[in-house]
């Protein structure tokens, strides 16, 4: 079945205001049989978003409306495509209890979800790792080298897979090599094979899945999918399901990179 299971929506404060219908029409046009809207879930209430506009997650007060509108669209488009209600949930070290509380409250309304790491912590200060190359550059200074940023990222992803987030913990790990987003500006010599294999072993053991994400192909400093090819090869060896996601933040980006990733799906 052709699916795109990582799509953002007008509820994303850093995305576009493209209507849900535009995304769905794009998906139908490209022959997708199922899509999941996976908006950035509201961040834990006590977490202070370090981005300048504090726009990394959707607003908690919009949550009911978001779920409701997708449920309606699910119904009205059901002849043409299956539409899932979903979230991209942040794993933020130190905020696991609040994340679990969110999932415990809304999990029964969620069809599909992704667990992603965007925020990394150093001495109690959090950074949004994929926000910009300037922030990434600051992180290299603070963490003491690009290798240390990679190490912190993969260790955090490992802990996300290991985390106890309750019965509604997402089964899929988002863009596992997101730390490559600015790799052409900040190359890293170490491949971190031990760290990535350790994550994959745990994903396999827990019967989880990988988000196979086309967005990185279109990031000028990345130019490769998430995860990168070497990690995908290892995931295949372990029979870990790869679930395609465009990570579209505008309707025209639905399906981006699909033809490149398709042979591995
Ligand atoms: Zn986003
Ligand atoms: Zn993400």
UniProtKB/TrEMBL annotation:
Q: Name one Pfam family in it.
A: PHP_C
Q: Please tell me whether the keyword DNA-binding is annotated for this protein.
A: no
- Pathway annotation from the record: Amino-acid biosynthesis; L-histidine biosynthesis; L-histidine from 5-phospho-alpha-D-ribose 1-diphosphate: step 8/9
Q: Which CDD domains match?
A: PHP_HisPPase_Hisj_like
In the record, the note on similarity to other proteins reads:
Belongs to the PHP hydrolase family. HisK subfamily.
Question: What Gene Ontology biological process does one annotation of this record name?
Answer: L-histidine biosynthetic process
Give all residue intervals belonging to the PHP domain. Answer: 4-213
Record-linked Gene3D superfamilies: Metal-dependent hydrolases
Q: Which organism is it from?
A: Priestia koreensis
| UniProt xrefs under InterPro entries | Histidinol_P_phosphatase_HisJ (IPR010140), PHP_dom (IPR004013), Pol/histidinol_Pase-like (IPR016195)
UniProt-recorded name of the protein: Histidinol-phosphatase
Question: Which key words tag this protein in UniProt?
Answer: Amino-acid biosynthesis, Histidine biosynthesis, Hydrolase
What does the record give as EC number? 3.1.3.15
Cellular component, GO annotation:
cytoplasm
Q: Which reaction does it catalyse?
A: L-histidinol phosphate + H2O = L-histidinol + phosphate
Gene Ontology molecular function, alphabetical: histidinol-phosphatase activity
């Amino acid at each position: 079945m052709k699916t795109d299971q990582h799509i953002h929506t007008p509820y994303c404060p850093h995305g576009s205001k493209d209507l849900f219908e535009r995304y769905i029409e794009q998906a139908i046009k490209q022959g997708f049989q199922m899509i999941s809207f996976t908006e950035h879930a509201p961040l834990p209430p006590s977490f202070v978003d370090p981005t300048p506009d504090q726009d990394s997650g959707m607003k908690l007060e919009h949550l009911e409306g978001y779920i409701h509108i997708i449920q309606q669209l699910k119904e009205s488009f059901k002849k043409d495509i299956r539409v899932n209600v979903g979230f991209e949930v942040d794993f933020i070290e130190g905020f696991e209890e609040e994340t679990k509380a969110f999932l415990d409250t809304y999990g029964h309304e969620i069809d599909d979800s992704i667990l992603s790491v965007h925020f990394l912590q150093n001495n109690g200060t959090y950074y949004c790792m994929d926000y910009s190359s300037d922030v990434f550059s600051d992180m290299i200074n603070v963490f003491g080298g690009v290798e240390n940023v990679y190490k912190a990222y993969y260790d955090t992803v490992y802990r996300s897979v290991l985390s106890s987030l309750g019965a509604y913990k997402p089964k899929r790990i988002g863009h596992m090599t997101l730390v490559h987003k600015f790799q052409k500006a900040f190359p890293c010599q170490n491949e971190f094979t031990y760290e990535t294999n350790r994550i994959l072993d745990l994903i396999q053991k827990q019967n989880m899945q990988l988000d196979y994400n086309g967005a990185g192909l279109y990031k000028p400093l990345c130019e490769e999918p998430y995860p990168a090819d070497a990690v995908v090869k290892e995931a295949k060896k372990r029979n870990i399901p790869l679930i395609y996601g465009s990570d579209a933040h505008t309707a025209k980006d639905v399906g981006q990179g699909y033809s490149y990733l398709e042979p591995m799906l």
